[in-house]
Write a structure and sequence with these properties.
By secondary structure, the protein is of the alpha+beta class. The protein has 4 helices and 9 strands, in the order βαββαβαβββββα. A hairpin with a 6-residue loop joins strand 7 (about 175-180) and strand 8. Helix 1 crosses helix 3.
């Protein structure tokens, strides 16, 4: 079995972290999204279950074209006043959103730094070879829940040449590695898209949660 995974997604969107009313999309799948996708594939709900896994993301074909649509989107923040009830007539309005079409992605995994008993790459192999052993729910999507994929399987040479996302601190492609669900703050990495299918160590991105911020000592504590 190839150690590369190939998937096709006919239509998706990866909203940029700073996007508000106008939902701009990243041109490439962020590592945080790929990690979430793999957890969904193996039926894992704990986001921290496989921290330490390293991902490499490749693109096949040209840069996916961007389409713009108008869709109804919800706008609200949770409040005690509404207690999770937000009537669509008051909290929804039409906004523009960017979509990517005909996206073809290759994923490479390295679970050697994980501490999990059954590592993510092993669970992916089980999910693909013996799906009856996996307990999961919902359609398998890349991005939002409506962005269903056509399928996932081992990569074949006739799928096309791979262009890897390579870590580059001066690169023009900025993508999130980890997003804190409570603070919405994230960890980002800059990349460039390689011109060849050569793979090197800079293609790896490790998924890890940022260390919690340390609180500054109060004035009274300093005096002690």
């Amino acid at each position: 079995m190839s150690d590369l995974l190939y998937l096709e997604c006919p239509c998706t969107s990866f909203p940029r972290s700073f996007a508000r009313d106008y939902k701009e999309t990243y041109l490439y799948p962020p590592p945080s999204t790929i990690y979430g996708f793999l957890l969904s594939l193996v039926g894992e709900e704990d986001l921290t279950a496989h921290l330490g896994v390293k991902l490499a993301i490749g693109i096949i074909g040209n840069i996916p074209p961007i389409s713009r649509i108008v869709r109804k989107q919800r706008h609200h923040k949770f409040s005690k006043t509404h207690m999770g009830t937000y009537p669509p007539s008051q909290f929804s309005k039409p906004n523009f959103q960017e979509l990517l079409t005909d996206l073809r992605v290759v994923i490479k995994l390295d679970s050697s730094n994980e501490s999990a008993t059954v590592k993510l790459d092993e669970r992916v192999v089980i999910a693909l070879s013996s799906p009856e052993q996996i307990t999961r729910f919902g359609g398998l999507s890349l991005g939002e829940s409506w962005s269903l994929i056509n399928g996932i399987r081992p990569y074949r040479l006739d799928d096309g040449q791979i262009q890897w996302l390579v870590k580059d601190n001066r690169g023009l492609i900025g993508l999130p590695i980890w997003i804190d669900r409570q603070t919405t703050r994230g960890t980002f990495q800059r990349f460039t898209l390689s011109n060849s299918d050569e793979f090197d160590e800079n293609c790896w991105t490790e998924i890890k949660a940022p260390l919690p911020a340390t609180k500054a000592k109060s004035g009274s504590q300093k005096k002690k």
